[in-house]
Q: What sequence folds into this?
């Protein structure tokens, strides 16, 4: 079992990802794809007159402020435009893909946050009414049913809260939960950079591997800032949870999945 998360930033080669996933699928590998769509969402939100807003949290992380209108735009892009684009590309390659959001069949289920702390002008404030949350459970029975019937699941946020609300959630965390729940041999996090860079954006400064036991080493944490820090910590949790290895790979190239599986990128083991 291989779980592939494809980011939603500029420069992602979805055609290459689909072609590579199809090639591995036809060789007998079982794959689940999880994708984002942040860049496309920002463009659509701007065009609809509801530009994106981001909150900076006390720990330094940032997240999208998700009111009801933002959630609707999010669903429009992630569940519609991007998800169906990926499914179409896979169908062209002869793979019977099924696109699902985390809402469908409660594939991604978690807790909606009642309040979100953020920093503004040096002061900690609380934002209420946000439609955000984290994935705590994965419907592995549904995913297994699809895989055994010969379908490739193509998954995307949002998730669903325990009360039934749609919630914006982190796609990397969702993919990590899928990989951990199914004890995947590999979790691939593909984006528009070749991996963890010691001197971002210098791509020649690629860090080739991170032993999970040394994740708190200052040499790694000093370079894993912002969202990348969350990605690295999530990768370590996945490895400790039974995933064989996690690889940060480059989704701009041809054969991005096979390249990552061959060791190109940053490997957490």
A:
């Amino acid at each position: 079992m291989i779980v592939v998360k494809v980011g939603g930033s500029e420069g992602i080669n979805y055609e290459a990802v689909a072609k590579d996933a199809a090639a591995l699928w036809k060789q007998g590998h079982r794959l689940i794809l999880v994708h984002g769509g942040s860049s496309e969402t920002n463009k659509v939100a701007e065009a609809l007159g509801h530009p994106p807003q981001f909150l900076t949290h006390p720990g330094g992380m940032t997240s999208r402020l998700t009111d009801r209108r933002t959630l609707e735009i999010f669903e429009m892009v992630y569940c519609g435009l991007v998800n169906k684009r990926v499914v179409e590309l896979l169908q062209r390659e002869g793979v019977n893909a099924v696109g699902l959001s985390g809402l469908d069949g409660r594939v991604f289920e978690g807790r909606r946050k009642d309040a979100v702390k953020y920093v503004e002008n040096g002061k900690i404030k609380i934002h209420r009414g946000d439609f955000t949350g984290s994935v705590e459970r994965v419907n592995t029975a549904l995913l297994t049913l699809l895989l055994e019937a010969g379908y490739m699941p193509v998954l995307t946020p949002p998730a669903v809260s325990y009360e039934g609300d749609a919630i914006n959630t982190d796609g990397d965390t969702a993919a990590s939960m899928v990989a951990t729940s199914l004890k995947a041999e590999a979790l691939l996090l593909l984006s528009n950079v070749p991996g963890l860079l010691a001197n971002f954006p210098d791509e020649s400064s690629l860090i080739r591997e991170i032993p999970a036991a040394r994740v708190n080493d200052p040499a790694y944490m000093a370079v894993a800032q912002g969202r990348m820090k969350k990605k690295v910590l999530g990768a370590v949790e996945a490895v400790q949870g039974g995933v064989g290895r996690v690889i940060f790979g480059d989704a701009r190239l041809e054969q991005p999945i096979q390249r990552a599986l061959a060791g190109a990128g940053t490997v957490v083991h």
